[in-house]
Amino acid sequence: MRRFSVRRWGAVLLAACLLGGCAQAEGGQGQQTQTKEKTSLYDRGLAVIQKMDTMAESDSYMEMMGGSPEVLEVVSDMGKGDYSAPEKVWKVTVPEGAIDALFDAYGISLDSVPEEIRPDLQQRIVESAPTLVGSQAGISFIAAMSLVTATEYFVDQELTEDTIYFYMYGGTCSGAVVFSVHDEGIVSATGHFVSNEMLGEMEDEDGFGQILAMRGLAGVQISEVSPR
Questions:
Q1: Looking at the DSSP assignment, which residues form a beta bridge with residue 163?
Q2: More exposed terminus of the chain, fewer Cβ within 10 Å: N or C?
Q3: What is the mean pLDDT of each run of 10 residues along the chain (228 residues)?
């Protein structure tokens, strides 16, 4: 009975993540940021995380956003971290086979999903990955994640697949930035804080992959990236 309840909660959470990702992608395509010089995804993601840090440190911003005392305490902890220089950055891509495994883990069948909309579904699953990871840290942390998130838009014709960068820090939280590819080369970069307690301290790709697999993201492709 307990196992069923966990699967059911996971399915509901996944559905909520996908709906949220849908609204976010559709709402941002009109906000394009043109850059004259090529900026790396590493630097773009780092800028998003530092913007989130500014949000978490701002009492005025948090007062406007609202939230329970417990949630605001989590946000305060997020803002105490130093996010200027990550210790390690993991690049994660999610192939279609990993998406099938994720749905199977929650007892959801994709047989009724038309083939032509599967790419849209895959994009929303990738966008929801940080929330799926963060969900293991509890309700208050999920609520704090929703308050402290930032999105930037830019044009990058070279990026062809949705990608996640996990920026690992030594404090309470690390950061995850999802780069989602839209029409006409538009890319959205959406950042979330994720709990270090959930991610653990893994030094190699296999170890980090095991952590993600425990959160339902099995079969992803992982590599380490460095600033350039």
A1: 179
A2: N
A3: 45 52 44 62 97 94 86 92 93 83 72 78 83 82 92 94 93 93 94 84 80 82 89
Q: Could you give the CA distance from residue 201 to residue 198 in angstroms, rounded to a whole number? A: 9
Query: Would you state the pLDDT for residue 192?
Result: 95
Greatest Cα pair distance, the chain, in angstroms, is 57
Q: Which residues pair with 168 in a beta bridge?
A: 88
Q: Which two three-digit tokens encode residue 88? A: 């390690």
What tokens were used for 46? 């780092």
Round to whole Å and give the CA distance between 17 and 124.
8
Q: Is 182:29 a contact under the CB 8 Å cutoff?
A: yes
Asked if 130 and 192 touch (Cβ cutoff 8 Å), the reply is yes
The burial of 140, by beta-carbon neighbours within 10 Å (0-12 exposed, 13-18 middle, 19 or more buried), is given as middle
What does the alpha-carbon distance between residue 181 and residue 206 come to, in Å, rounded to a whole number?
A: 26
Distance CA 17, CA 132 (A): 8
Residue type, 112: S
Q: Are 47 and 84 in contact (CB under 8 A)?
A: no
At residue 3, the pLDDT reads 40
- CA gap 218, 166 in Å, rounded: 16
For residue 15, give both structure tokens.
Answer: 């559905």
